[in-house]
């Protein structure tokens, strides 16, 4: 996979690309990455990429010409152009999984008051990180890139992402590490039993309990057994 970020602040991505798992994956060549300053595409004689909004109002808007020229310059027939905007579809794990299959992702980071509306006609999808407003698209883009890159083959162990929260529609089951007892709190005995089937069943039940307790909204899309449905009803009654 190749990731191209169109941004006014390419240096924002230095931290992402030089840290931990993402850095190792990049160095192993599991994906390629470029952050391109779209300022270099402006034809405006003073190098501006923004201007005041028609009709008045606060702030500056990113202009069509530099951004649309930058998209044309980096796009190929296998590219998917993603505009970062609070007005887009909310990014979720299912979307990360889908985008991890793409050949080339181009992220378009806005700034100031956002984009001239006509730029939307040149993108394939519009994605939001959530219902809040950031100063720029860069933090949202870095978060999305991280979630997508960790799903690429070879970046982390497949069985590690399979059980992650949201992967099967549920929150992940509780996990424990050493010591066995801390401040009087013990690790559940089943996890020390070495009985794989009992551990699997316990984890599934705990994932259902956790999801019903913290994010019951997620359960609408999950197929539960009759016994699990009963368990959920009992938990919801106590809430
Ligand atoms: C201050 S925001 C502009 C918000 C715009 N005036 C609006 O109300 O929709 C500047 C840029 O930050 C990015 N941004 C802000 N919030 C975001 C979010 N929740 N998800 C993704 N990108 C966001 C977008 O790229 C946006 O163009």
Give short descriptive properties of this protein.
Trp Operon Repressor, Chain A, binds S-adenosylmethionine, two-stranded antiparallel sheet, 2 domains, five-stranded parallel beta sheet, Alpha/beta knot, alpha/beta, 239 residues, elongated, 17% strand
What this model shows, in words?
The chain has helices spanning 14-17, 20-27, 64-74, 93-99, 138-149, 158-162, 196-214, 226-237; strands at 2-7, 32-37, 50-51, 61-62, 79-90, 104-108, 125-128, 181-182, 185-186. With 239 residues, the protein is an alpha/beta fold. It has 2 domains: 2-156, 3-Layer(aba) Sandwich (Alpha/beta knot), CATH 3.40.1280; 181-238, tRNA(m1g37)methyltransferase, domain 2 (Trp Operon Repressor, Chain A, Orthogonal Bundle), CATH 1.10.1270.20. A hairpin with a 2-residue loop joins β8 (181-182) and β9. The longest helix has 19 residues, at 196-214. The chain is elongated, with a radius of gyration of 22 Å. S-adenosylmethionine (SAM) binds at residues 84-87, 109-111, 113-115, 128-130, 132-137, 140.
């Amino acid at each position: 996979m190749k990731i191209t970020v169109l941004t006014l602040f390419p240096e924002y991505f230095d931290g992402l690309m030089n840290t931990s798992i993402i850095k190792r994956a990049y160095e192993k060549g599991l994906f390629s990455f470029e952050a391109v300053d779209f300022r270099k595409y402006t034809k405006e004689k003073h190098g501006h990429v923004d201007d005041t909004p028609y009709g008045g109002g606060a702030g500056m808007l990113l202009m069509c010409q530099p951004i649309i020229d930058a998209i044309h310059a980096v796009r190929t027939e296998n590219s998917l152009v993603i505009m970062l905007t609070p007005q887009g579809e909310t990014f979720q794990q299912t979307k990360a999984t889908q985008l991890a299959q793409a050949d080339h992702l181009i992220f378009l980071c806005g700034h100031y008051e956002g984009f001239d509306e006509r730029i939307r006609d040149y993108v394939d999808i519009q994605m939001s990180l959530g219902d809040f407003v950031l100063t720029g698209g860069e933090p949202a883009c870095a978060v999305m890139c991280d979630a997508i890159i960790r799903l690429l083959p070879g970046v982390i162990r497949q069985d590690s992402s399979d059980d992650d929260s949201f992967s099967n529609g549920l929150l992940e089951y509780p996990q424990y590490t050493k010591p066995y007892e801390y401040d009087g709190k013990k690790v559940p005995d089943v996890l020390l039993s070495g009985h794989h089937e009992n551990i699997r069943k316990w984890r599934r039940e705990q994932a259902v309990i956790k999801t019903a307790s913290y994010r019951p909204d997620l359960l609408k899309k999950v197929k539960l057994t009759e016994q699990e449905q009963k368990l959920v009803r009992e938990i919801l009654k106590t809430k």
